[in-house]
Amino acid sequence: MIIIRNTQDVAILWKKTATFTFDPFVENVMGAFGLESGAIKSMFHNDPQHLIPAKARLSSKMSTENPTGKCYFHMQKDWFRVQLHPGENLRVLQDKYSCFLSQSVKWTDLSGSYVVSSIEDQKVISLKRFCRQILGVCAMKAFFGAEFFDTSPDFLSRYQKFEDSSWKVFYNYPRFLARDLHKIKDQALDGLVKYFALPNEERPDTAWIFKTMDTELANLNFHERDRAGMMMMIIWALNHNAHKISFWIFAHIICDPNLLSRVRSETENAFDSNGSLDIHRLLTESPQLDAVWFEVLRIYNNAAIARKATEDTTIRGVSIHAGQTILGPF
After folding, report:
1. What is the rounded distance in angstroms from the CA atom of residue 95 to the CA atom of residue 97?
2. CA separation for the pair 4, 329 (Å, rounded)
3. pLDDT for the residue numbered 171
4. How far is the CA of 70 from the CAs of 63, 66, 145, 163, 204, in angstroms?
5. Is the dihedral angle over the CA atoms 59, 64, 66, 69 positive or is it negative?
6. Distance separating alpha carbons of residues 100 and 207, to the nearest angstrom
7. How many other CB atoms are found less than 10 A from the CB of residue 208?
8. Cβ burial, residue 206 (10 Å; 0-12/13-18/19+)
9. Phi and psi angles of residue 41, each rounded to the nearest 5 degrees, phi first
10. pLDDT band at residue 120, thresholds of 50, 70 and 90?
């Protein structure tokens, strides 16, 4: 194993995607989320149209939009760019998220496990639990629609219990040493299976990316539980760090009156006279809030980048051999 700390060296890992791959690490995590080995193998099979039934090839993106024969997993990364880069898909997602967030922070709706005490016109909340609950609910509703919680009302609490112990995923804890983790994971997967078993017309607000994933995984003959495992893996990626970063942003702003005043002043401009949020304006005209965001990321983000060398190479004179693992700051 090689550990690098220089940011210029880390940039090389990002740019040389053919020489430094993270596919083996993803495969390992997929297994921890319950995907069968055969399903994992098919996701990394180049030119996957040969794995797709003939009838499905005419509509499958892996066949009709895949001139270079990318494997499913590498196409999925492209689909996430379509969903999350500026464009109609992102705008729809942002509008939904903004709507659900506005509803969630109304005074009358501030309730649940994050409210520590409530008297008359005052409520004391746990900031940590508030960020986790609100962001979790809004993310799930934005990506899957409000109807998700009609079919799987306990999903979020089960997912969060799984998240608390999910560090064991990276250490390949065998099932008998992490029974509680796998039990709660299986219960959360049950909720996703139930939701995706609904006809499309009964879950019309499912985000484009998850509709695409579900369809294309079905084209690869994934059974419902393997598809749910992939969905939960993405949900984990969406939620795992968001609420923690949000907590620290709030903590620093609230504890610094001058900073609080400056952030309030600039973010007020993003709301119209009716109190509706212009999210584009918030994102493009809030330099002070941006500064807090980047500083919090710099201080509190403890993620690491991991890659495996596919061939012998060097980074600034240091020899790296094929098969070696490289770790660095994210």
Report:
1. 5
2. 8
3. 76
4. 10, 6, 30, 31, 29
5. positive
6. 15
7. 16
8. buried
9. -60, -40
10. confident
Residues 241, 135 contacting (CB under 8 angstroms): no
Could you tell me the two tokens for 233?
A: 């893996």
The token duo for 30 is 């997929």
Sequence-distant (6+) residues with CB within 8 A of 263 are 253, 286, 288, 289, 292
pLDDT at 229 over 90: yes
Tokens representing 11?
Answer: 């940039």
Contact by Cβ (8 Å): 48, 42: yes
Residue-level pLDDT at 240: 87
Q: Residue 66 — very low, low, confident or very high, per pLDDT cuts 50/70/90? A: very high
> Phi and psi at residue 308, in whole multiples of 5°?
-120, 130
Beta strands in the chain (DSSP E): 2-3, 20-21, 115-119, 122-125, 304-309, 313-315, 318-320, 325-329
CB 44 within 8 A of CB 23: yes
- How many CB atoms sit inside 10 A of residue 219's CB? 22
Query: What is the pLDDT, as a whole number, of residue 44?
Result: 93
pLDDT at residue 320 in the model: 92
Q: What is the DSSP letter of 87?
A: S
